[in-house]
Every structure is written in structure tokens, then in C-alpha cells.
């Protein structure tokens, strides 16, 4: 880049939200109409909150006819678990929890080495077991294509083989709004209704629809320490190492995941409007700012996705 | 302002990546950490300048081989508008990817290298875009810096390209003399081309209105799902959920349900925003009717007096997408059209089409990967459809292999001749 022309980082109007909303509802209705047993992955993060809200709208005034699935690493923010339980109860939906600690206790998967080892990767076998045990033919996920470059290439209906694997070089062409959900037994489709949303769209929609979020998305005082240039929250799962000083800072979280891989960003934004203004002005990607798991290598996300990750 | 969906195609050397990189970077859609990571990789590859393709090529194999192999979707927004860009490779062996990217686009972004003029690849992009029903094209004549910003070069390429677009009946085209590398006429104008006064690319993309006047269009609402809440407060409630494919739905409007042919009236409309008196194209709605019919998924609620065709036989233009099997006459496949799935038999295989000219090629026993051809189809149940040139949603379908479940073809109902593709 030998020239930089900056566009003022103000917000576009919300005309695009109506189009994205209808597109997502269309995708959700297609899946619920066509699959034998779909489910909806819900992490308590903002993307899955928006997806769940869209699914409820898609089926209204019926109750959500599909179960909500949470893969619990055992390292979750308590605020998020509380939010999950309240939401599921309010909607009268069925909740299915796939538990990483249970899978470790039963010897199904090995615990990582050392205290506070990341359980991020351990979610994959638990997710795949949960899909298999419940015979889910379709799994709705709140992934967005703007999140990460391997996701930019993923289909709205993303085919998974009997091993739960994604093969990026062998994806079904996807045209118009015609989705191919035909599968053989044991295979499944990951359905991504908000593929075309950006982080900013999600935040604007949350404001537009006045959706409640877990409190950790807003600035709050928290004990943190710095690791690899990122601010990690002190918790029973995440302790500072030698030379890592603990300090209190006003922070918020841009993504919500396992406490061992999700970093905080310094922030004073305590309202939705302030958060949106920060997002619109930021120069760092969501995953770059707050996900230690994507910093492992150039193609960390692609590799995890191939194995069956979200 | 409405969302604008763009499709582009091109190869490494025509400057497509540089142009996209500039649009993304200048509209702040590329974050610093993503840029830094691309810079690091460029350095590792001993490149002398930042390889912008690294920002757009998502898969490990693509970065390793330095090629784009699939459709990638990019998102950028200015204070005025949000854009979704389907970015595809431009070579003929990726025709299926171009067709895929163009299928959802309102506008094609076509790139011509000013040094080479209108070559086969840029012709092909225009042809595929018009075949897929794209009526608006922004033709960027790039690398003007390498031809000394010469107006004569720009004018002669523009005139030649305009002739092609006239043949394709595309009248909504604009031409831009640009240098993606230097930034001329991309986001801002250029002092180096005072002879060009029609404004740069980005403001044009921000302001272009690609929406159609739906007032005069007949209602098309394919039923996706029948909503029947088993709740006491909604006893006897039944609504038909779907996305409006054309026209406007209004409470009180008389409608025809197809294929049954029964008529009724719209009693109520629910949109994502709540109850409404009317809703227009592309809105996900659910409607209730004044009569209690048996309407199910795959049926179409349509304007009374201007209904679509209900048929089991039709001719179509298809792009074959399977890399393992060829299409032959007599083939039995699954067809997915609007919200209806049926079996389809290929009863005729008329000809293959030259994708650079849209003219028919003689002698065609089968269609292979990336071939475009004209076929006759018979389906196991009636489809409720329009010609693709009339409506892209009710006129499109996909074919699915019954044993592998792969999507093997994209189809457009109707077999317009050269020059008919852009017309109504």
C-alpha cells in the first residue's frame, strides 16, 4: 500500500440489517424444514445470541422446535453460563450440554498437560460425540465469514463426513438461495445462517433489537495479566506465570469462549453505543485481539476446522 | 441504503487482488494484525512488495501455491453502504466458481488490463455475468499508469467492450480508467487523468441503485415452512413462511396457490419487524390466508391473474459442475427448485455453448466439468416457475446426484439465444 486514503470510521445506516436478517431467517427455515434432526449451537457469545434470536423469529409464533446445544469446556465465564440458562428457560427450549470435564473424567479424551491447559481443542471430540449420540443431521452455528480467512471460503451449508471432517477443497457449489442438505447416515451439515454478517453488523443488530448480552461484553474492572501481548483474566483456570504481574484494569471481551484462550481488551465502553463506536474505530481483528488459539500458526483455524471444530 | 452484492473474477496478473486489496484496505475492512501477518509472509517469500493476494486467499493450499481456487466472500462497508464481494478465479477451468459467485450478485466488477485490451478472460466474465442475469457492470480498465494515462487507450477499450455488452443486452455498464496500484479513480479521482470527469469507482458503487420497481411485478412467494404453533393461545393458527421472491404482498390481496390453482386472500403478514400491511421482495415473511387450504412446502403463493408456469417439462441452460461424472442424455438426477425437490430426467441435450461468445457449438454427446449447455428436463412432480431472465429466484435450480449427494449443476430455466440474456 503506497497510499492511504482513510474513510471516516462512522457507521453505515442499518438498511443492510434488514436484508441480512431476512437472508438468515430464510436459511434457518430451510434447515428446519429439510433436516430430520437439527440443533443450534449456543455458546452464550454474541454471534450465537443473534443466531438464536433469528431462529426464534423464523419460527414465531411457534416455540423453537430444535434443541440448543452447548459444548461446555468447564472453563466458562460464570456470567455466560448464567446467561445461557436464563435464555433457554425464557424460550422454553431444550438444552443439551456436551461436557468436556465429563469426557475427561470418563477417559474419553485426555486432559492437556499442566494446570490451566487449553481445552479449546478438546471441544471438537465432545461436539462430534454429542452430534453422533443425538443423531443430529444439521448443526446451526454462528460463524461468520469475516472472522477468519479459511471461514471466508466456507459454505452456508458446510458438509461434514462421517468423521466430522471439513474438506475445504471438496465443497459443494452453493448457488442462489438453493442449499443442498442431502447427506448419508453418519454425515452432517453445519449450517451458518449469519455467514454474511460482519462483527459490526452483529453489534448494530444487537442495538437495533435491544438484545441482552452477558455482562462481560461491557467494560468492567477485572484482575488481568499480560501474556503474549494479550490481557488474560485471572481465574481458577488461568493463573499468571512467573514474571506475569497481575493488575486491575477496565476491560471488556470482544469474543466469548474458553477462559484460557479468550483475552480481554482495554475498554471504557459500558454501553452498547460506546462498544459500537469502539468496534467501528478499531484496527485489530476480533480474533487477532482476543483469541490465543488462532495465534498458534498461519492456518490454525483451517486445521482445527478440518478436524470438526465449529 | 441497500446492501450491494458484487461479483468479481480474475487471475493473479490482471490486478484484481490489488483492486480488492485497495477497496478493503481503504474502507478499513482489513485490520492491522491481518495486514501484518500478510506482510510477514510476503517477507518470508522474499517478495519485494506486499502480496495483496495473501489478504484474500484463505486456504493453506492457495497461499502455498499462490492461486485462488474457490469463491471467497469479502465484506467491506463505507459510511454509505455495505458491500458483499464474491471473489472468484478467472480462468476457464474455474467457470463453475464464477457462475457460483455471480448467482447472488447484483453487479459485476470486471477488470481489463489496459495494456492487453479486451481479452478472452474479460469477455468471459461479462458473458457469465450476463448469463447469470447481472444487469449492472462496473468495468475497470486497470493499469492506466502503464499506458501513460492515455485517453485513446481507454476510449478504444471502452468502445470495444460496450459493443460486447450491447450484444449481451447489458445497458447498465460504467467504465472507469483506474490504476489500482497507484489509487487513481478507485476511491478518489485522479489528477493524472484530467480528461476523465465521470468520477471514481467507489462513490459510484456507493450510489448505484440496482433495485427493481416491485410495484409492477407479480407476487411470488414460495412456501418454505408451515407454521403451526401447538400452543393454546394460537389454536387453529396456521401461517405460511417463506421469502418473497418477487413483487409485493399486501393484506387483502387475492392470491393463487400453485400448483393446486386454488384462490384465496392474504389475511395477515408477519415480517421480522412484526405485523405489516405489505411486504416486498426479499423479505422473510409468514402470511395467513382467509381460507383453510392444505398448503405445504414447495407450493407457491402468487399474484392472482399473473401466475407463474406450472410444468413438468422445460428447457434450461445449465452449467455442469461435477469433476467426476459427465452429463448424458437420459440421466436421472434430483432437482431443487425454489423450495421444492423432485426427480429430474434429462430428456434432451441440445448443445454445448461457447462460454466466450455464448454461441452454440455443434456436436454434443455429453457435458463435462465447466461446460455450459442447453438441456430439456422432465420432472417427477410439477414445478412452479418463471423463466430465469424474468425472475432469478423462481427461474433457477440446482441438480444433485442421487448417489453421491453432490451438487452437479446450476440451471436456469429457458434457453435464450445470444443477446437475449439481459432482456426481460
Please summarize what this structure is.
Chain A is an alpha/beta fold and 310 residues long.
Describe this structure in words.
The complex is a heterodimer of chains A (310) and B (424). Chain A is an alpha/beta fold and 310 residues long. Helix content of chain A is 32%, strand content 16%. In chain A, strands 3-2-1-4-6-5 form a six-stranded mixed β-sheet, sandwiched between helices. Chain A has a four-stranded antiparallel beta barrel with strand order 7-8-10-9. Chain A is globular. Chain B starts with a strand and ends in an 11-residue tail after the last strand. Chain B is globular, with a radius of gyration of 23 Å. The chains are: A alpha/beta (310), B alpha+beta (424).
SSE inventory with pairings:
The complex is a heterodimer of chains A (about 300) and B (about 425).
Chain A: H1 15-34, E1 38-41, H2 46-59, E2 68-72, H3 78-91, E3 95-99, H4 100-105, H5 123-134, E4 138-140, E5 157-160, E6 188-191, H6 199-209, E7 220-227, E8 230-233, E9 246-253, E10 263-266, H7 272-281, H8 286-290, H9 300-307
Parallel strand pairs in A: 1-2, 1-4, 2-3, 4-6
Antiparallel strand pairs in A: 5-6, 7-8, 7-9, 8-10, 9-10
Chain B: E1 4-10, H1 16-26, H2 32-44, H3 53-56, H4 60-65, E2 72-77, E3 82-89, H5 95-103, E4 107-113, H6 120-131, E5 136-142, H7 151-167, E6 172-177, H8 201-207, E7 220-222, E8 225-227, E9 239-243, E10 248-250, E11 254-258, E12 262-271, E13 274-276, E14 278-280, E15 284-289, E16 300-303, E17 309-320, E18 327-328, E19 332-337, E20 340-353, E21 360-361, E22 366-367, E23 372-385, E24 396-400, E25 407-413
Parallel strand pairs in B: 1-3, 1-4, 4-5, 5-6
Antiparallel strand pairs in B: 2-3, 7-16, 8-9, 9-15, 10-14, 11-12, 11-16, 12-13, 12-15, 17-23, 17-25, 18-22, 19-20, 19-24, 20-21, 20-23, 24-25
Amino acid at each position: 500500500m503506497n497510499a492511504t486514503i482513510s474513510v471516516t470510521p462512522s457507521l453505515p445506516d442499518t438498511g443492510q440489517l434488514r436484508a441480512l436478517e431476512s437472508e438468515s431467517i430464510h436459511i434457518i427455515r430451510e434447515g428446519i424444514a429439510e433436516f430430520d434432526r437439527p440443533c443450534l449451537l449456543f455458546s452464550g457469545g454474541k454471534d450465537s445470541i443473534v443466531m438464536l434470536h433469528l431462529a426464534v423469529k423464523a419460527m414465531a409464533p411457534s416455540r423453537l422446535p430444535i434443541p440448543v446445544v452447548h459444548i461446555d469446556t468447564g472453563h466458562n465465564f460464570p456470567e455466560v453460563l448464567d446467561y445461557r440458562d436464563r435464555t433457554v428457560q425464557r424460550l422454553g427450549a431444550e438444552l443439551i450440554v456436551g461436557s468436556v470435564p465429563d469426557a475427561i473424567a470418563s477417559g474419553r479424551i485426555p486432559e492437556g498437560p499442566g494446570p490451566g491447559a487449553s481445552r479449546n481443542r478438546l471441544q471438537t471430540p465432545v461436539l462430534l460425540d454429542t452430534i453422533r449420540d443425538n443423531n443430529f443431521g444439521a448443526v446451526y452455528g454462528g460463524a461468520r465469514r469475516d472472522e477468519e480467512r479459511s471461514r471466508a471460503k466456507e459454505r452456508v451449508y458446510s458438509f461434514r463426513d462421517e468423521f466430522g471432517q471439513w474438506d475445504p477443497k471438496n465443497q459443494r457449489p452453493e448457488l442462489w438461495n438453493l442449499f443442498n442438505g442431502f447427506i448419508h447416515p453418519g454425515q452432517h451439515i453445519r449450517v451458518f445462517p449469519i455467514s454474511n454478517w460482519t462483527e459490526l453488523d452483529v453489534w448494530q443488530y444487537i442495538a437495533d433489537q435491544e438484545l441482552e448480552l452477558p455482562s462481560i461484553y461491557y467494560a468492567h474492572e477485572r484482575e488481568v495479566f499480560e501474556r503474549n501481548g494479550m490481557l488474560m483474566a485471572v481465574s481458577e483456570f488461568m493463573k499468571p506465570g512467573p514474571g506475569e504481574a497481575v493488575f486491575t484494569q477496565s476491560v471488556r471481551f470482544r469474543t466469548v469462549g474458553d477462559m484460557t484462550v479468550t483475552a480481554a481488551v482495554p475498554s471504557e465502553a459500558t454501553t452498547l453505543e460506546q462498544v459500537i463506536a469502539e468496534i467501528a474505530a478499531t484496527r485489530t481483528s476480533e480474533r487477532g485481539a482476543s483469541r490465543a488459539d488462532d495465534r498458534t500458526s498461519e492456518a490454525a483455524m483451517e486445521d482445527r476446522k478440518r478436524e470438526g471444530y465449529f | 441504503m441497500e446492501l450491494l452484492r458484487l461479483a468479481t473474477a480474475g487471475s493473479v496478473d490482471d490486478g484484481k487482488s490489488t483492486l480488492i486489496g485497495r477497496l478493503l484496505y481503504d474502507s478499513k475492512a482489513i485490520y492491522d494484525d491481518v495486514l501484518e501477518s500478510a506482510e510477514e509472509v510476503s517477507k518470508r517469500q522474499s517478495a519485494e512488495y506486499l502480496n495483496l493476494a495473501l489478504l484474500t486467499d484463505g486456504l493453506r493450499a492457495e497461499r502455498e501455491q499462490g492461486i485462488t481456487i474457490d469463491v471467497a466472500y469479502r465484506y467491506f462497508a463505507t459510511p454509505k453502504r455495505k458491500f458483499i464481494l464474491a471473489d472468484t478465479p478467472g480462468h476457464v477451468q474455474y467457470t463453475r466458481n464464477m457462475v457460483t459467485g455471480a448467482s447472488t450478485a447484483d453487479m459485476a466488477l470486471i477488470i481489463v488490463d489496459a495494456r492487453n485490451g479486451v481479452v478472452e478472460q474479460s469477455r468471459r466474465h461479462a458473458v457469465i455475468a450476463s448469463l447469470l442475469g447481472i444487469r449492472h457492470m462496473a468495468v475497470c480498465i486497470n493499469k492506466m499508469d502503464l499506458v501513460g494515462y492515455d485517453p485513446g487507450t481507454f476510449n478504444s477499450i471502452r468502445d470495444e467492450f460496450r459493443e460486447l455488452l450491447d450484444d449481451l443486452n447489458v445497458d447498465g455498464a460504467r467504465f472507469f480508467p483506474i490504476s489500482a496500484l497507484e489509487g487513481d479513480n478507485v476511491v478518489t479521482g485522479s489528477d493524472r487523468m484530467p480528461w476523465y470527469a465521470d468520477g471514481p469507482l467507489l462513490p459510484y458503487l456507493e450510489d448505484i441503485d440496482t433495485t427493481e420497481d416491485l410495484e409492477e411485478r407479480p407476487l411470488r412467494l414460495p412456501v418454505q415452512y408451515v407454521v403451526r404453533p401447538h400452543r393454546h393461545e394460537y389454536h387453529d393458527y396456521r401461517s405460511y413462511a417463506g421469502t418473497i421472491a418477487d413483487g409485493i404482498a399486501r393484506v387483502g390481496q387475492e392470491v393463487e396457490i400453485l400448483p393446486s390453482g386454488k384462490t384465496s386472500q392474504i389475511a395477515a403478514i408477519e415480517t421480522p419487524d412484526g405485523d405489516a400491511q405489505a411486504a416486498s421482495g426479499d423479505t422473510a415473511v409468514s402470511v395467513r390466508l382467509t381460507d383453510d387450504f392444505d398448503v405445504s412446502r414447495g407450493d407457491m403463493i402468487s399474484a392472482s391473474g399473473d401466475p407463474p408456469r406450472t410444468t413438468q417439462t422445460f428447457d434450461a441452460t445449465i452449467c455442469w459442475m461435477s469433476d467426476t461424472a459427465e452429463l448424458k442424455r437420459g440421466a436421472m438426477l434430483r432437482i431443487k427448485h425454489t423450495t421444492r425437490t423432485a426427480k429430474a430426467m434429462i430428456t434432451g441435450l441440445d448443445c454445448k455453448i461457447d462460454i466466450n461468445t455464448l454461441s452454440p457449438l455443434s456436436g454434443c454427446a455429453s457435458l463435462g466439468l465447466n461446460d455450459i449447455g442447453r438441456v430439456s428436463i422432465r420432472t417427477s412432480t410439477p414445478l412452479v416457475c418463471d423463466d430465469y431472465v424474468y425472475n432469478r429466484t423462481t427461474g433457477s435450480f440446482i441438480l444433485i446426484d442421487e448417489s453421491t449427494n453432490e451438487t452437479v449443476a446450476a440451471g436456469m430455466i429457458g434457453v435464450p439465444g445470444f443477446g437475449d440474456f439481459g432482456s426481460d
